[in-house]
User: Fold these one by one.
Assistant:
Number 1:
Amino acid sequence: MPAIKEIIDAYSADGKTVSRPLAYLYSNIRDYFVCKKGGKIVGCCSLHVAWGDLAEIKSLAVHPTHKSNGIGTALVKACLKEARELGIARTFALTTATGFFEKLGFEKVAKTSLPMKVFGECLQCSRYPDCDEEAMVKTV
Ligand SMILES: CC(C)(COP(=O)(O)OP(=O)(O)OC[C@H]1O[C@@H](n2cnc3c(N)ncnc32)[C@H](O)[C@@H]1OP(=O)(O)O)[C@@H](O)C(=O)NCCC(=O)NCCS
């Protein structure tokens, strides 16, 4: 989890990711997919089940020196595969990387179309309520 935290934190200062305490990361460790190169974790992404028919794709980050090698795509596809296996109908992401998610078939939706429950963590975020993340949804 320290390696995952380091990658997520590399992008948190400019608002692309949300920094998480190690305690949070360990509590959610089963949600994470990682990509390893040469024994080192170079990318991460998590699938967090929100409801019976809805899961969030979150904490997506690829180490700056390994970007644009298909790692982010592979990580999101792993999350989508798991969502399908779990029988979850819809996935969503709250993200500033809208172009990246569009390439994977996600569509922008109004935040108000998602259940209030999924915004619980936003209240803890320093960027709330002036956040530039958009809600994107993909049916799996
Ligand atoms: C977004 C991110 C995860 C993409 O990972 P990656 O491994 O670099 O992406 P891939 O190599 O799989 O790229 C797939 C495609 O998406 C494009 N892409 C990557 N990041 C993009 C972005 N922010 N906006 C639009 N397109 C993007 C790539 O150019 C590539 O296009 P191509 O297939 O036409 O060549 C990575 O750039 C990253 O860690 N960014 C900072 C953190 C972040 O924004 N996370 C998302 C929070 S939800």
Number 2:
Amino acid sequence: MARVVFDHVSKHFGAVRAVDDVSFDIEDGEFICLLGPSGCGKTTTLRLMAGLEQPTSGRIAVDDRDVTFAKPKERDVGMVFQDYALFPHMTIAENIAYPLKVRGAPAKDRAARTADVAQSLGIDHLLERRPGQISGGQQQRTSVARAVVHKPKVFLFDEPLSNLDAKLRVEARSFLKHLQVELGVTALYVTHDQAEAMALADRIAVMEGGRVVQMGPPLEVYRKPATTFVANFLGNPPMNLVPVKLRLDGGRARLQAAGLDVAVDPGRASRFRDGADLTLGVRPEHLRLVPDAGEATFTGSVYTVEPLGPETLITCTVDGQLVTARLFGDEPPELGDTAHFRIDEHHLELFDDAGVRVER
Ligand SMILES: Nc1ncnc2c1ncn2[C@@H]1O[C@H](COP(=O)(O)OP(=O)(O)O)[C@@H](O)[C@H]1O
Ligand SMILES: [Mg+2]
């Protein structure tokens, strides 16, 4: 276990700022997910932590030891790569034991430790096979076994589940979470899959363009996204974002758009002028179907109905804009129906014209 500090770390490749002034702390035993779209700098951040890249500027420390320029094997990290990076000509046992071998552990200890780890990961019956002779899920476990075999202080995962099919991915995700809790390791886990990050992380760091734009516990990031980018990246379907105009009138505040009108606490709008362009944000599960227009925040025409079993997704067009609701239990409206929805103000988020969340 270990505490990790990134202190104003940047990594430039020529003109590309792959990682741009990133600072965060990872507490002992904490599981951090780096979440963001392709190309936002996740892998580069992980490689900087592993010592596979050197930063252009900034400092990285593990347990108060500066490791910024330390070699990978001096850092005591275990890494699981996206494509597993198993050695095809070696047996599963040799693959798992590899980190022990490069660290000069005696053969007897290597065999004992390998058997131990393989058993705990349920792959002990595969030790004599080669990577080409086992399934994707088994390769993934082998890769995890190789990362944990030398009891590293920090585990690094680069999209370790992305090569698995959907069912196996959810199984493997539960397995990784269980493993992490059991071992109590410090982990930095990269993914572009928001559900994976929500399920696994103690805290999520959302990255955009080489920067960490928000870091916090999953539900906090989900409920209070710092920007429209974060709001749109978390949740499936994501938060509805609707451009609105602020109307201030006699101490009252309303948000308006074609087909939408909602009162808000004037305190929330106090730093804006009448007519300001804002963005209203609301999660699909916070849209309530109401019987008539009088109670409704907005009215739309039903564009798609997607029954998912426990819930139904209803997407409406509201003056050309698509808004999605997640309905539970209700008798859902049908294609082409006019549907009235209400948003309770405490579920409504506001973003300014730069896309930054307005604090309540
Ligand atoms: N070795 C490299 N040389 C040049 N550019 C790189 C290199 N590695 C990454 N990049 C660039 O840095 C940015 C971040 O890449 P990466 O960290 O791989 O993103 P992610 O893992 O989030 O998809 C991208 O624009 C990528 O093209
Ligand atoms: Mg990557």
